[in-house]
Amino acid sequence: MEGPPRFVVLSLVIIMLSITTSTCSAQLTRGFYGKTCPNVEQLVRSAVAQKFQQTFVTAPATLRLFFHDCFVRGCDASILLSSPNNKAEKDNPDDISLAGDGFDTVIKAKAAVDSDPQCRNKVSCADILALATRDVVNLAGGPFYNVELGRRDGRLSTIASVQHHLPHPDFNLNQLNSMFSFNGLSQTDMIALSGAHTIGFSHCNRFSGRIYNFSPRRTIDPTLNLQYAFQLRQMCPLRVDPRIAINMDPVTPQTFDNQYFKNLQQGKGLFTSDEVLFTDARSKATVNLFASNEGAFDSAFVQAITKMGRIGVKTGHQGEIRIDCTRPN
């Protein structure tokens, strides 16, 4: 018996593929909570603004928390989970420096959302973190942008899962591009997201190798502005607590702007992974563009953080909506 014509079979295959693709690709949407919690954005914004007024650290801490969450297991709020035996993501050495104000911001925003009876236990911690991140960027002077929603919370968080998933301060451009590419982000996305270092701080032990004992012949990294290096030495003496916090942007540390890129042009990138964006010819033009055009940076940052917010998301019946952001249901 003769089978169906080839074009019919081909059509069926295409239909099957499109069905499979649409069900497998996780879809986030704007206004996801339009019916279940229509006031979610205002509730989160109000709580975040209150926290931001108490301490500026809220802004860089929340932004960094979102980045660390998405790059490990995807944007599923696994970074917020606690472990009774200190074996969760947040206990990894790469995460231990995350400021408590970021965690506190999400917890306060979650409480604000749940204070509305219509919204109680309807909004994921992962979405609250994504919204809070947008709000702190905007409150610090950065762009306002629409946040895609619909993430569900993960149930797993292990200290081992952080390994090799977060960039290190001594990364070169190839290492940075490789890590971001693994997460579906381009070099331009990576440079724009690095611009988040326009706010926040680091600790002396994260960059001390650039200002002391850089090599057998040199004691200071030659890509570092010499005057800036001596200022860093004053703030970070060798025998002083390495946990001293230093502003990532020495010029406008509490404003989300494009100053970070101007600093790179002057050899004032705090980390090797910052300064390499200017010293490597492959990324230098993008740094120069963002330094001269704040609108171009803002636009690229919004595009990059939106793409980052899609990494490994759980949607539909995957994961859960946590009742308590710090532990699975």
Can you summarize this structure?
The protein is mainly α and 329 residues long. It has helices spanning 6-24, 40-54, 58-71, 100-114, 125-139, 173-182, 187-194, 208-211, 226-235, 259-265, 272-279, 281-292, 294-308; strands at 201-203, 245-247. The radius of gyration is 22 Å and the shape is globular.
SSE blueprint:
Layout (H helix, E strand, L loop, with lengths): L5 H19 L15 H15 L3 H14 L28 H15 L10 H15 L33 H10 L4 H8 L6 E3 L4 H4 L14 H10 L9 E3 L11 H7 L6 H8 L1 H12 L1 H15 L21
Antiparallel strand pairs: 1-2
Number of strands: 2
Query: How far apart, in Å, are the first and last alpha carbons?
Result: 56 Å
What is the averaged pLDDT score?
90
What sequence of helices (H) and strands (E) makes up the elements? HHHHHHHEHHEHHHH
Largest pleated sheet? 2 strands, antiparallel
Strand content: under 5%
The rounded Rg comes to 22 Å
Q: Please report the number of helical segments.
A: 13
Strand order of the largest sheet: 1-2
| Low-pLDDT ranges | 6-25
Secondary structure class reads mainly alpha
Percent range for helical residues?
40-55%
Outline type: globular
Characterization of this structure:
Helices cover 46% and strands 2% of the residues. The chain contains 13 helices and 2 strands. It has a two-stranded antiparallel ribbon. The model is unreliable at 6-25 (pLDDT under 50).
